[in-house]
Write a structure and sequence with these properties.
With 71 residues, this protein is mostly helical. It contains two helices and no strands. Helix 1 (2-32) crosses helix 2 (39-64). The longest helix is centred in the first third of the chain and has 31 residues, at 2-32. It is elongated, with a radius of gyration of 17 Å. It starts with a helix and ends in a 7-residue tail after the last helix.
Length: 71
């Protein structure tokens, strides 16, 4: 049942992380050398980040999970 709540909580987390990315990019755009972008562009970038980072996190979590010892 906890997996269901993890999936449901990912939706709002997506929108919040896109909003935070937009805010942070608007703050540091002069130092980084980019143009400030809107919320839709921030959502596209967030989708790209999630699609590249999520499989890597899943692979690391699968490898680093200790196996139970059988007696």
């Amino acid at each position: 049942m906890s997996d269901y709540f993890k999936v449901v909580s990912a939706g709002p987390l997506f929108f919040v992380s896109a909003w935070v990315l937009m805010i942070c990019a608007g703050i540091v755009y002069k130092e980084v050398g980019i143009r400030p972008f809107g919320y839709v562009t921030s959502m596209v970038v967030t989708i790209g980040l999630w699609l590249t980072v999520a499989p890597a996190i899943g692979a690391v979590a699968r490898v680093s999970t200790p196996k139970p010892k059988h007696r």
